[in-house]
Design a protein that fits this description.
homotetramer; alpha/beta; Dihydrodipicolinate Reductase, domain 2; six-stranded parallel sheet; 9 helices; 17 strands
């Protein structure tokens, strides 16, 4: 049995508490939030859970084995670091930290404490993303050509981070998982429209190996909701639309091939193939449920999480580089 | 009556001939194409039109008042230049020329010859784009925030130009028309996947005044066809989907407003509004028909075309700057 | 304060309990279900609610003011009748009863007991249906021509009633509310594909006044989910798609008009108009929440429910007539 | 070489002339139309085709081998009959004749003249319908449960026939082709909204063997265009949407099965399966082109057309029965 404590009962915290409360071999023993009315809500729903306004009380509670951090990004490093010092395992909201420097320190501290560090990149646990990873991994798509992702809507404004750290973080983690490769360089553009507010519209281009290009479009101020990713290979192409109720993934048996023409390289023949479309049936499992069980499994059996600290750090590296590029109107930035 | 000659009877030429043949006060008197079988096709359809393999014969024909150039981009400047020298009016396919230098020379030559120079930016003559221009012009959208355009599909490969000069040229002309403003700086990214072929996937960001940002996504290798533009203002937002058979424009009464909170600038309140959606009825006039009549009107009455040489040059300037930026992985490039 | 008891905690019961638990001036004091595990579930969620396997214990509980019946259709009349005898108000699931005869008796018993009888036709309380009723009521659509409704999907099989009593019941109540008129005659067709099971695919045509025709298509075995109603008038037409996340109602400024031609009645000119489309913004209130508050208001203040027993009976009359017609392959049946 | 003459150059005639003009081994030698301006149009497009206002001149022209009849339904029998008497082959627009009586006589006359009789049921020659026929024929769908077709839009008003004879005729021919079975009984409903005009909205139910039911919804006055057919089997189900540009057919690996429960027939278990969806690639051949070649092949080589007179007559039988049923508000009518 793993006893977990959850810090932050705002927008996402209730989902974490509910899912861990229903996870086998896990028990939510404590919830912490600065706001008293949030704690009252916890108690009305889960009378048996201890509540506190002081996160340190939760972190230092000897009953707590693992700390789940669901607070603003700027506090992630500090709270996670303290949790490791107190000998706890940690599951932290995405993005893992607010900077690469903090991220690198956190990885060291996790290693020193010999405790699990997992990042809550929830999409990695959805049946759709797992299916795409499997298809790309088997080479079904052939040589990958491009990855194009759009995540826009008239959404909530995040005051603490810009639209990249709020929305693109999802897509960067999905790309990291599917491609298994860190981009070498990024170029990003974007603007802030409201005085004193962070950027609300942004675009990132990532350069990967073998001429593979990945592009991300995020926008807090669109009139329509779009969650769509195209992945193009020279054998097959995928359209992943997260808003489709039942056909989230469509696989097109379309591609392009380059044949040398009769007169050699000066006569290349580009030919397009057009074929069937196929939408695989997907399970309807809730991703957070899968993820909670995976965290408990990692903590209990010492396994490495799918979304471990290394992955969390890779995503933060792209975000930080994108911020730098965006401040310089697209100037490319290398990622180390 | 304006007698026109059409050079190039390949993909687009037949549409030009058919439309000018049905335009009041215009007469197609000559068609030129390098390929004999294309000329045979012209004669079977229009027995009364003179045909020739030599474009100079057409240009120098005293019967011809106006020359329409529908050939590869690399030949535009040379043919148009010769037409002006021969004292003819010119309608040239988009993009107007293959470089800014050629474009500037062509404008001078047109001025010197005192003949009309018009560029075939057909979308400017569609009922949808005219409607959007009208709405933006009246200020219906409020302060403009962003312009986002996607034009992708599994399409024909252009061997002579890259995907920017083939596809983005449409969207850049639409933006020029709607916003009436030249961007100050661009950042572009993109790659070529086939050896010896031009870029097939590309992205452009344009920086305009007042934090307005415009972004363009073009792709020759997508499995699905998308032709969608979002235009966001702080009062209303437009979704323009050119593939919708009957509701190409949707106007959302949605927006965002920034109010100063009770405690001054440190407490900005961002609020979203959500309202009705409205799809104006649009005429179903064929754009090329409207454009042909407009060209004849300009030639006859000395009017300035909606899509004149200045506009053609502004579009070429963005394309050339985007090429430079793309070669440098997004490095921003100023437009003069 | 109205104390309510809920009989039946199966598919819909939990929604009723949750909504009434959150309704002002209402309190859920008792829940009854035949199955012990359902009662255990009630207690884990609402420790303060009394539970019992015996519905008569609930009905006769002096603490209970109003009985909510969420059980199979065949038991509706019996339970509601006993509730009236015990001096309780009643909210009963749709369809109100399993036959016209039961329905008529129930109305009498409700009148005799001077207690509220309301039927849970939930759709009547949705913002979309309320908006359509308002538009039709104001005459926005002009003269009504047709009403066409489709409700199909690969759904749960109801063993106790056929697809008309399970699905068409929704649409018949919506039509009753919007048109405010009882059809004079119906013709219905349909078949049962599984031995010993009720009809799973069915169609109803209702004849109303002034050549208005209403048609309903329901199907338990379709591969896709459709919930779409077309309402055609000679001035405007509505498409109501309940699966659309944000634009459930689209109003088309299209219509048809008949003008007498120059040569009199022998030369009628039918002309079509084509105009704008408009999607009104709708509130996102949960219908059951609105309905629960309305029931409490009716019980407390003696008001007549929007979905009262008369309406419930009108719907049952159409269903019973449709069953008769369906058994005779479409033979029309008068409704009295 | 087959010399064809086309009677009627109105809405559909120009498509017939254009396609036969491009068909191998066929030559359009004569076109007839009552209206002089239509004939002028023919001559401007095809200077070599002979034109006449008198259809008998065309029919009796010894140069003409086959007569194509594209005139109002009421004239079909008379013109076709005369063509057979003159020893010509006949391709007649759908519906073949205006009554069963005329249809039966025409079949006899065709047999007596030993000339080909083919009906222009164009949809039978589309790649989508051919694909569905193939799948159903191979038993891919398992046991067929239902066939449901919708064909509605704000369309042209036909003054000479009602909406069944104008629109349902398409779907009835498709059903005939796919199922290869004549319904035993029909029930139809519908109304006319404009004085002195035929019915503009109508519904037909057809009863086939083994509890298979087919339903058709046609409407001239809908605000949106719908062309959708669902075909449900107990193994797979098809959605055929003719308006989809590239995925007209979607095959759902969904179905329903009935298993006997542990306690025998009293405990039937209905279970639903949910699986992949698949959209086969379809050729983009123009149906009329395929059909024209097929007609020439039948005439030349004495083959029986896919859409021969027997099929044309089966469709007319359903239409006539549906008219009778519709006049009696759904009363079922047997088909002999």
């Amino acid at each position: 049995m793993v006893n977990v404590g959850v810090i932050g009962y705002g927008y996402w915290g209730p989902n974490l508490v509910r899912n861990f409360a229903e996870t086998k071999d896990a028990k939510v023993v404590c919830v912490s939030d600065r706001k008293e009315d949030r704690l009252t809500l916890v108690q009305s729903r889960f009378p048996y859970i201890k509540v506190t306004q002081d996160p340190m009380e939760l972190i230092n509670d000897p009953l707590v084995d693992a700390v789940i951090i669901s607070t603003p990004v700027s506090t992630h490093y500090d709270l996670a670091s303290k949790a490791f010092k107190a000998g706890k395992h940690v599951l932290v909201e995405k993005p893992m930290t607010g900077s690469v420097e903090e991220g690198e320190k956190l990885l060291e501290e996790s290693a020193r404490a010999k405790k699990t560090l997992m990042v809550d990149h929830t999409f990695i646990y959805t049946p759709a993303v797992i299916k795409i990873k499997e298809m790309v991994g088997k080479g079904d798509l052939g040589r990958l050509l491009y990855y194009d992702s759009v995540r826009v809507n008239l959404g909530l404004f995040q005051h603490d981070v810009n639209v990249l750290w709020d929305l693109a973080v999802h897509d960067l983690s999905i790309m990291d998982f599917i491609l298994g490769e860190q981009p070498a360089e990024v170029s990003a553009t974007g603007v802030a429209h409201l005085n004193g507010q962070p950027q609300d519209v942004a675009y990132i281009t990532c350069y990967l190996q073998n001429n593979l290009i990945a592009h991300f479009h995020v926008n807090w101020m669109a009139p329509v909701k779009v969650r769509r990713t195209l992945i193009g290979g020279d054998r097959q192409m995928i359209v992943y639309d997260d808003l489709e109720p039942s056909e989230k993934i469509k696989v097109y048996d379309k591609g392009v091939s380059l044949n040398e023409g009769p007169e050699g390289v000066y006569q290349m023949l580009v030919s397009y193939r057009s074929g069937d479309m196929w939408a695989p049936h997907l399970a309807t499992t809730e991703a957070l449920k899968t993820e909670a069980a995976h965290f408990i499994d990692c903590v209990t059996n010492g396994k490495t999480p799918q979304t471990n600290g290394e992955m969390g750090l890779r995503v933060v590296k792209i975000l930080e580089a994108a911020d730098t590029s965006m401040a310089n109107r697209g100037q490319p930035v290398h990622i180390l």
